[in-house]
Amino acid sequence: MDLIANILYDTIYHSTPVILLVIGGVYAYKANVLNIAMEGMLLFGAFSSALMILSTGSLFYGLLFALIVNIFIGLIFSYFGITRKGNVIIVGIAINLLTSALAAFILKVKGMAIINLSEQVDIASLKVNIPLIKDIPFFGDVLSGHPITTYLTFVLIFVLSVVMFRTKFGTYVRVVGENEEAAKSIGIKVNLIKYSAVIVGSLTAALAGYNLAIERLALYTNTMSAGRGFIAIAAIYCGRGKPKLSSIYAIIFGLAKALAINFKLFAGPISGLFEAIPYLVMVIVLLMASYLDNKNSWKRGYPNE
Amino acid sequence: MKRFLLLTVLSVFAISLAACSKTDDAKSIAIVTSAAGQNDNGYNESAVDGAKKIKDEFGVDYHVVDTTDVPGALEQLAESGYELIFSLEYNFDALVNGVGGAKSIAEKYPDTTFVVFNDNPNLNEDGTVKHENVISVVFDVHESSYLAGALSVSVLENASTLFDASTYSFADLDVDGRSIGFIGGVQSNGITVFSYGFVEGINRAAADLNVNYDYYTDYSAGFGDPVSGSTISNTMYQNGVNVVYSVAGVVGDGVASKANELDRLAIQVDANKDADQPGSILTSVLKNTEVPVYQITKAFIDEKIGDLDNALSYDLDSGATGMTDLAEIEKMVTASGMTKWNEIKTYIETLATEIADGTVTVTDAQSGETLDTTTLTNVTVK
After folding, report:
1. How far apart are CA A73 and CA A198, in angstroms?
2. Do B40 and A113 count as a contact with CB atoms less than 8 A apart?
3. CB–CB of B134/B122 below 8 Å?
4. Which residues of chain B make contact with A211, given a CB cutoff of 8 A?
5. Could you report how far apart the first and last alpha carbons of chain B are, in Å?
6. Domain that includes residue B161, residue range
7. Measured between alpha carbons, how far is B346 from A55 in angstroms, rounded to an integer?
8. DSSP label at B374?
């Protein structure tokens, strides 16, 4: 595999979990619920699937369990943040803290430092080699050989985008987010919509966790989310909650991360600088996006809406 | 009802306080683990093993604390009367210097002996000892890394003799070039000490076999994200690297997972992790904390702890550092490769003796030495 193909392959690798978080997270964003618990939800998805696969050996049960656990986490978040009208930032932080603490506790009880699934999961066999495409030079290296969730992710971008803009549910989510009182007045069950919006996000986070911990690594460690939940929030804000646009920002992050990793190898001692690139790119993009967004209102004084 | 509740709460408090403090004057020791926790199958666990051994032999009790607040734990333990405390985390500031204008913990509790690992923070600028009651333990991991480097080269050069052709899919040494990689968590002496020893070991074996190796390094992988470990090592493996040595916490687990996926080799560190990815981990470079814990505690029991140096360094010979017994990788060696394998093991033992008797000196970054790249005749550092 040459360098460019490698960079593009890694881009898909690193983008996938972030895209999953983004396309689910935009629902909560559009429903005007700030879900900063995505980091914790990602970790919960990774942890619960790893734990289940460790005890049953079945990938399917692992994924199923991760989805169930994450629905439950979404419900907890929604109950405190929406029904009880708690501060969603605080609730989100609580969930983020709870995740690693709970996982650390369970690991300690089980007498393990990390969950290692190398006996249960054979990563190489989880890679899907697409017939025909895998034989095309260059593109085959980039597009073939990813696990199934990765391909599903790119399908989901379009599915969830259609749901957002072409279905009743999507419309309700946007209405609730734009004007809650108006939504109430026409009889939309506002809380139900908000709950569902959060849970869509927690479900895709479960997929993201499964993708990272099971399909890519076959291991779980307590720090493996590594800020991806927050990167996803940045991507959602950059893309103003549009699933496709936000996903593109997620891919930009993935590209930056892949560039950093691949260039590091040849950079020698200054390779540490490259580690900052993904985060730097995110800050610059956020700055540009908000500048372009608000340019009209600053310059001419009309509201941007 | 309210009063009853209050009483219950108070009594629970009282009980928990009593549980914290030591009940009698008998000697007992405490161990504060590092972030990996006491079940890490190595670094922390072997310290606990050392304490167990002491308990069996001398009846001295031990108390293990898993915490994220190391200074807090040290202070609480010292306050409740533990006279010997081992602190395995890389966290010394509050102990030696004191933070936020407070007195340092070592100064506050002069009757307690604190033992810290992997660095010697207990020095003034002029090189004198700051606190008599702080002992720092350093492992000569550069020596064991040297052996790991030599082993890597010996195994790669003889891969076709040792292993069945289907076991590994190594990059072809003659076509893709010979290369070995190193991934470190952060650029510091505590990490480069591994790398320098490792590359010198590679150089030694490469010189003995008359071949040339490329050495790829990354000193900024962090310690937390196994996913980046997996992709960084992937880049290395795709560039023809066959063995990656990682000294970067759980990042190394990501590397080992990638090695397993691609049927290449990884080298782990601190604990014996060879069985994590059976056959894909060549060896682990160990820090066997059992040895210093046992020795220091024994001196403490014999009331000779004052005679110990404030800076102890444990070399290959002491058994406190070294490689694993290579049992996992040996399972992959074919019957016909066994003769060669034993030759390699003997070769590694020879190197260990040469280090012990001083014929070979390995650069020790822990004590401030830097690598002189001109000595690397058979390795190109990329």
Report:
1. 10
2. yes
3. yes
4. none
5. 74
6. 141-286+322-381
7. 41
8. G
Q: Among all chains, which residue has been given the structure tokens 């340019």?
A: A295
Please tell me the predicted confidence (pLDDT) of residue B18: 47
What CATH number is given to the structural domain containing B57? 3.40.50.2300
pLDDT attached to residue A305:
47
Single pTM value for the model = 0.85
CB contact under 8 A, A10 and B235: yes
CA distance B307 to B314: 17
Of chain B residues 43-82, which have a CB less than 8 A from chain A? 66
The alpha-carbon gap from A271 to the nearest alpha carbon of chain B, in Å, equals: 7
B225 inside domain: yes
Q: Are A243 and A160 in contact (CB under 8 A)?
A: yes
Tokens of A219: 């291991």
Does the pLDDT at position B113 exceed 50?
Answer: yes
Q: Tell me: the pLDDT tens digits for B159-218? A: 988 998 888 988 888 888 899 999 998 888 888 999 999 999 999 999 999 999 999 988
More confident residue, A296 or B24: A296
Residue in A closest to B228 by C-alpha? A261
Reported ipTM: the value is: 0.85
Closest residue in chain B to residue A110, using alpha carbons only: B39
B275 interface with A at CB cutoff 8 Å: no
| For chain A, domain boundaries | 16-241
Q: Which of B108, B139, B170 is the last residue of a domain?
A: B139
DSSP conformation letters of B145-200: HHHHHHHHHHHHHTHHHHB-TTT--PPPHHHH--EEEEEESSSSHHHHHHHHHHHH
Give B128's contacts (C-beta < 8 A, 6+ positions apart).
Answer: none
Tell which of B95, B118, B139 closes a domain.
Answer: B139
CA of B126: how far to CAs of B106, B122, B129, in Å? 19, 11, 9
Pairing of strands B84-87, B213-218: unpaired
Give mean pLDDT, residues B94-117.
87
Q: Are residues B32 and B60 in the same domain?
A: yes
User: Measuring CA to CA, which residue among A145, A152, A154, A147 is closest to residue A126?
Assistant: A147
Question: Is residue A268 within 8 angstroms of chain B, CB to CB?
Answer: yes
Nearest to B240 by CA among B306, B320, B326, B174: B174
Largest Cα span, chain B? 85
DSSP single-letter state for residue B63:
E
Helices A243-267 and A277-300: crossing angle in degrees, nearest 10, is: 140
Question: Tell me, what's the pLDDT at A301?
Answer: 57
Alpha helices (H) in A79-137, listed in sequence order: 88-109, 123-126
Q: How many inter-chain contacts (A to B, CB under 8 Å) are there?
A: 104
Beta bridge partners of B64: B31
